[in-house]
Amino acid sequence: MTRTERVTTADFRRWKEEKRPVTMLTAYDFPTARLVDEAGIDAILVGDSVGNVILGYPSTLPVTMEEMLHHTRAVARAVSRAMVIGDMPFLSYQASREEAVRNAGRFLKEAGAQAVKLEGGREFAATVQAIVTSGIPVMGHIGLTPQYVHQLGGYRVQGRQAAAARRLVEDAFSLAEAGVFAIVLECVPAEVARYITENVPVPTIGIGAGPDCDGQVLVTHDLLGLYGGFAPKFAKRYANLVDEVMRALSAFREEVQRRQFPGPEHSFTMPPEELAQFYAAKEKP
Ligand code: KIV
Predict the structure, then answer these.
(1) Are 202 and 180 in contact (CB under 8 A)?
(2) Which residues are within 8 A (CB) of 117 and not within 5 positions of it... i.e. 6 or more apart?
(3) How far lies 190's CA from each of 3, 142, 144, 158, 239, in Å?
């Protein structure tokens, strides 16, 4: 595949057959999306985690369609290869199928995404089918689904008991039958993720779901150590940019306070003859 060919759902299907792992990261803004795309990541999720990570909300529940579209547009403008996936926020698809199709369509029509993601299992199979039938690729999301935090009783691993694990497997089959092109498995035991990956025909993208999924996703701010808040066990830190950013910000403050910044290399000057005229004119108002 050449560098600028857009990743499609057909690539996801082929990569599962070829056992070629899929990489996905979040981005919510132009510069981050450009870096993620240039790094060769296959898919960029404009996650509703924007609520916690960028907008300072205590959960993803307050995030609106308008906020999601705003961030998706910025990401889409930056990306040429990765598939851009818009995350459907809380209450944008739950109230009715018609509303779900309209809101899903807005991500493609108004924001430049190529697909949407929504949280939920078999209870949303008909909704997924309606969106897919309208020509909009859908990524499923089961296990820990943060929009359902109050129903789940907190952010905890799902499917640890046999009956709950079975329900997850049924949810995955149900979503695959409804037409999703991939399924995010969040915070489920590695054994359950492996079983789903081996038996369900669409790629699984894990986050806190062990090593055997068809792909992996992380929140980019967690990976970069750029988020001061709580970092879950599965969020491996590949860098610690909070420390680096704090070092740079403090250095700026100190240099300004000591009058070390800006130096001559950061300043502009006038030609000497213009400067002389400037001073001379100043003497005669
Ligand atoms: O919103 C998000 O970032 C997500 C990922 C954690 C999968 O849903």
Answers:
(1) yes
(2) 45, 47, 85, 86, 87, 88, 138, 139, 140, 141, 184
(3) 33, 14, 14, 11, 25
Structure tokens at 208: 């806190």
List the one residue out of 70, 59, 66, 81 whose CA is nearest residue 4.
81
Q: Is 210 left (phi over 0), alpha (psi -120 to 50) or beta?
A: left
Pairing of strands 182-186, 22-26: unpaired
- Mutation choice for ligand 1 from 217, 223, 236, CB with most ligand atoms inside 8 A: 217
Ligand 1 centroid, distance to 162 Cα (angstroms): 25
Q: For residue 156, how far is its CA from the centre of ligand 1 (angstroms)? A: 15
What angle (nearest 5°) sits at the alpha carbon of residue 140, between those of residues 227 and 95? 95
8 Å CB contact between 132 and 179: yes
Residue 122's closest CA among 200, 85, 86, 176?
176
| Atom 4 of ligand 1, residue of closest alpha carbon | 47
Q: Which residues 6+ apart lie within 8 Å of 179 measured at CB?
A: 128, 129, 132, 133, 138
Q: What is the pLDDT of residues 226-284, one digit of tens each?
A: 977 777 899 999 999 999 999 999 999 999 999 999 999 999 999 999 999 999 986 65
Using an 8 Å Cβ cutoff, are 142 and 193 in contact?
no
- In this predicted structure, what is the pLDDT of residue 155? 93
Burial class (CB in 10 A: 0-12, 13-18, 19+), 66: exposed
Rounded (10°) CA dihedral 167, 168, 172, 178: 50
Give residues (CB < 6 A) around ligand 1: 26, 45, 47-49, 87, 184, 186, 207, 217, 219
Q: Model-level pTM? A: 0.95
First to last CA, the chain: 69
Which residue's alpha carbon is at the smallest distance from atom 8 of ligand 1?
47
